[in-house]
Amino acid sequence: MKLKLKVNKKIIILGILILVILGAVTYSHARAQKAKIKAVTTVKVSKKNLIQTASDKGNVEANYRNDITLNPAQKVKKVLVSEGQQVKKGDILIKLDTLEYDSQLEKQKINLDNAQSTLKQFLNSGVANDKSNAQNTVSQSQITLENAQRSYEDANNKFKQSETLFKGGYISQNDYDAAKKALDDASNAVKAAENSLENSRSALNNVNESSEDKIANQRNQVALIQADIDNLNKKIEECNVKADTDGKVIKMDAKEDQYPKTGDMIIVDDTSKYKVSVNISQYDSGKVKVGQKANIKLKGSTKKYTGVVTDIGQFAEMKNSSTSSNSSSQESKVNIKITIDNPDEGIKAGFEADAEIVLDEKKSVLAIGFDAIKDEKAAGKKYVYVVNKDNKVSKKYIKTGLDAEYDVEVTDGLKEGDKCIINPPQNLKEGDIVTEFSAGDTGGSKK
């Protein structure tokens, strides 16, 4: 009986030991299996509206700018408009002093009269009378010169008197200027008479030349003088500085009775429209098309504007490009002009603006975030990891379409509701069992 009890006791102890060992092995295996399960974050594939954009900073410009650079050597006589004033195309903005041109014009008019008179004589007289006529012309020119010289002496005496009176404060600046102009005109008349006398004497010396040659030469002389007169009249007309566009005067450096400084300008802006000039990366510029919509926001303003791409530059230039470290680097960019749809008084040329061009958009398409997509560069394929109902990972190859700021369109390989792993661990592989945490529907990080 004692022997039987001892045997039973040993069997019980052995059974207990076996159970303990089995429990330890099972616990160890369970812990090992649990350690192999990876924690991942998933998102559900869903349909979204995608917008692809290209954006950068730019500056507001007027629809057209009329820049007028003032000549420091030409005195401003009168200013007819002021900054902020609206003007029409052709309106006179300022008048420049024409005194020098007026004097030259009077001289040339006298020369023209004399040249035409000589030509008329050539045409109305025969060869036999040429010498007599030439002599008479010399005599007449001599008389004209003498009269001009007497007029000059008289004008010179009056100017000296005016100069003395002006220095003493007895006459005005205008009276002094009038006396000076009279003296200049008299001097020009003397020079013109001298030229006329010289021409008439030259005609007398050449009286033996053929009548045809003399007439041709004289006609040429008349034409040259007339061309000079036309040129002077044009210069005088150009002294009326005009606007070449409807718009607003935004800069007026001219001051009456003063000579402009180097760099002084008049600027008239056509403010009927405004444009934003923005430089877009060459990588995005190929997608930009005339007519595409754009969103615009002025620096320091909460108001948003819309616009349309109206011009694309024909070449690229190296421009500064901001980086995440607030430093700058050079990047090849293309200039784009965006015409603002709804300009108002809050917009001014020169303002800084942020512009976003809508390159493409699609509505209600399957999409996932960029942070869920992996690349097999050697095969040129893209894939994602999908978690099935039993928490097992499968690898799915996909095809993509339009890429937006955070998400990309999936055209093949996934269906709505699939759960994709975002930022998958490096050691994740197909067939792994995972514990998932949901991040919502196709949330993604910025491209």
From TrEMBL:
<dbReference type="Pfam" id="PF25881">
    <property type="entry name" value="HH_YBHG"/>
</dbReference>
<feature type="domain" description="YbhG-like alpha-helical hairpin">
    <location>
        <begin position="96"/>
        <end position="230"/>
    </location>
</feature>
<dbReference type="GO" id="GO:0030313">
    <property type="term" value="C:cell envelope"/>
</dbReference>
<feature type="domain" description="YknX-like beta-barrel">
    <location>
        <begin position="274"/>
        <end position="357"/>
    </location>
</feature>
<keyword id="KW-0175">Coiled coil</keyword>
<dbReference type="InterPro" id="IPR059052">
    <property type="entry name" value="HH_YbhG-like"/>
</dbReference>
<feature type="coiled-coil region">
    <location>
        <begin position="105"/>
        <end position="242"/>
    </location>
</feature>
<dbReference type="Pfam" id="PF25989">
    <property type="entry name" value="YknX_C"/>
</dbReference>
<dbReference type="InterPro" id="IPR050465">
    <property type="entry name" value="UPF0194_transport"/>
</dbReference>
<dbReference type="InterPro" id="IPR058636">
    <property type="entry name" value="Beta-barrel_YknX"/>
</dbReference>
<protein>
    <submittedName>
        <fullName>Multidrug resistance protein MdtN</fullName>
    </submittedName>
</protein>
<feature type="domain" description="YknX-like C-terminal permuted SH3-like">
    <location>
        <begin position="371"/>
        <end position="435"/>
    </location>
</feature>
<dbReference type="Pfam" id="PF25990">
    <property type="entry name" value="Beta-barrel_YknX"/>
</dbReference>
<dbReference type="InterPro" id="IPR058637">
    <property type="entry name" value="YknX-like_C"/>
</dbReference>
